[in-house]
Structures are given as C-alpha cells and as structure tokens.
Design brief:
heterodimer, A: 163 residues, 1% strand, B: 175 residues, mainly alpha
Chain lengths: 163, 175
C-alpha cells in the first residue's frame, strides 16, 4: 500500500512538471467583448415580456393548428369518393327480411298490432264504461270493513282497446 | 466556494443587470473553465472557442444565474453542455492539438508534456476532468464536487482511479 502511495505521489509530481496555459489577454478581450455584445442584445428583453411573449407564441401556434385542422376538415369530405356514403341510401329491407332478424318476436308483435285508436274501438270502450257506471249506481254502497280498492268497479281493471 | 446568492458579488451584479458582472465572471471562472474545457476536449484551440460560447450562454441566461443556488454548478454545467454540443459537431472526441506545456524551469523537454498529454487523453473523461482540476488548478475535492455536482468522495475516488491508470500508462517514464 505504501509502495502504491509512493508511486501515486510520484505521478502527481510528474503531472506538475507540465502546466496548463493561462487564458491569454487576447482571449480575454475576445470573450469579454462577445459576452458584452450578447449582454447588450439581451438587455432589450424586459423580464415581464418573456412570459408574455411565450403566451403570444403559444396562442399563435394554437390558432395556426386550429386553422389547419379546420381547413383539412373542410377539404377531406369533399375529396372523398361518393361510394363511401352508399350506406345512407340503402333501401329498407322487406318485412320477411325483418322477421328473420334476431329480434323477430318484437318485430312480429309490432307488425301484428292493429291501429291504436279507431272510432269503433273508442265507441266500444265508452259503452263499456257506461255499463260499469250503470252497474255501480244500481249496486249497494260497499261494506265499510272491506277495503275500498277491492270493491271499486268505477273503472275496468284493464282497458282492453284491442278486444 | 458555494456562496449565498445575496452575498455573491457576481450574483448581486447579475441581479442588478450590471454589465460589470462579465468582468467578475471572467476573473473567477476563466482559468478553471479553460482547464475544464481542455480536459473535456483535449484541445486548447477548441477549448478557447467553446469558452467564448460558454460566456455568451452565461450572459444570455443571467436571469437564472442571478438566483441560482450553486453558481459554480450552473456555470460548469453550461460548460459541459457546450463542450458536448461541440464534440457532437466535431465527431471526434480529441483532436490531438497540444494543450499542456512543459514547466519552463524544469529540465524535462516539451516531449514530456506531450507524453503526459497523451496519457491524460487515454483516461476516461470523468477521471481526466478531475485529475486536471486537482493537479493543474489546485482545487480541493470539496470544490470539485461543487463545480461538477458530485460528492467529494466521488471526486476523490475518480481522482484515485485516474492516478492509478496514469501510473500504468507512464510506467516507463517513471524513475
């Protein structure tokens, strides 16, 4: 270990037999004048202007990007071939085709359903309501012990429009 | 070495936006930066060119330097970045341009300085920069650690590895 230290000290002594040149006066003049020139150029930058300038540049970049995107959004559909929009002009399939679809029970129910309100069904319903009212007038008042909802016949329990 | 920004005359001048800071920066950092850049670039001519770029960069970033926690670390990091940019453009790590001089009073001729320079060039960069700052600028490991943003122990171990490698390289030259 001592031998290694001795050799390392010798290396350090050998290193000191050479030297690094100091900066020359010419270099000093060149570097400091360049630095002062840079100082003067940067002196016009007031500190508060730096973030303002960054915001302005960001806003300009955003406007540019949005304009560019809008421009291409307007141009691209006009340039597209028309066959890509064929799906919008496809005719409605036939009824039999609908019935073959997975939801055929729902479709069948919808297609078998008669029109909701006709004059005949409305007249029939009115007759039924009138009959119920007549029956309720002719019967005695309900027993007080019995719950009202089980005795009421004022309206039919189920309005069957389609029967 | 590491001063508080309010006490440091350079940082005080930078905060005042006083151009006299350029002279203060030169007086404090020119010698160390030139040695550091020569150790990185192995060329005096290239180191002088990069030193100018470093000072211009420091001036442009003076608002950040004015409040920097470690001015030394900031300045040497700028120098390292500029040297790296220069090396990328040059595409050759070391140009072979002489950057060491023989001591005039010594009996050894200039060839010895060239032999020593060749040995230093063969060291890894992280060892070479510490050997140069310690041997030729007389910096302590504490100061080197603050300059290069590393612990003094790391600087000391890199220096030791560098010296051991130099010992192997200069075995024939040793008495």
């Amino acid at each position: 270990m001592n031998e290694m230290d001795r050799e390392n000290n010798e290396i350090e002594r050998l290193l000191r037999q050479a030297k690094l040149p100091k900066p020359s006066a010419e270099l000093e003049e060149r570097v400091t004048s360049a630095a002062r020139q840079a100082w003067d150029q940067a002196a016009s930058d007031v500190p508060w202007q730096i973030p303002v300038r960054r915001v302005a540049i960001s806003a300009a970049a955003a406007v540019l990007m949005i304009s560019f995107a809008n421009y291409w959004a307007d141009r691209v559909p006009a340039g597209r071939p028309t066959h890509e929009f064929v799906a919008s002009t496809v005719e409605t399939p036939e009824l039999d085709d609908w019935l073959q679809m997975p939801c055929d029970r729902l479709v069948r129910h919808l297609t078998n359903r008669p029109p909701a309100f006709t004059s005949a069904t409305l007249r029939k319903h009115m007759e039924k309501v009138r009959r119920v009212l007549d029956e309720s007038e002719s019967t005695e008042p309900p027993d007080a012990a019995t719950p009202v909802e089980y005795k009421s016949r004022l309206l039919p329990a189920r309005l069957n429009f389609y029967s | 070495m590491n001063r508080h920004s309010a006490d440091d005359p350079i940082q005080a001048a930078l905060q005042r936006d006083d151009p006299a800071a350029v002279r203060l920066l030169w007086d404090r950092y020119a010698g160390d930066l030139l040695a550091f850049l020569q150790a990185l670039l192995c060329s005096r001519h290239d180191a002088e060119d990069v030193l100018q770029t470093v000072f211009v960069r420091i001036v442009r970033k003076r608002r950040y330097l004015a409040d920097a926690r470690s001015l030394d670390g900031y300045v040497f990091q700028i120098a390292r970045n500029e040297a790296a940019s220069f090396t990328r453009l040059r595409r050759c790590p070391c140009s072979g341009d002489p950057w060491l001089e023989a001591v005039e009073t010594d009996a050894r001729p200039q060839e010895w300085a060239e032999e020593l320079q060749a040995a230093l060039t063969r060291l890894p960069q992280e060892q070479r920069e510490i050997v140069v700052l310690k041997a030729y600028r007389g910096k302590t490991f504490q100061e080197i650690g603050e300059m290069l943003d590393m612990s003094p122990n790391t600087a000391a171990s890199r220096y030791r590895y560098g010296i051991e490698k130099l010992r192997a390289l200069l075995k024939d030259a040793m008495p």
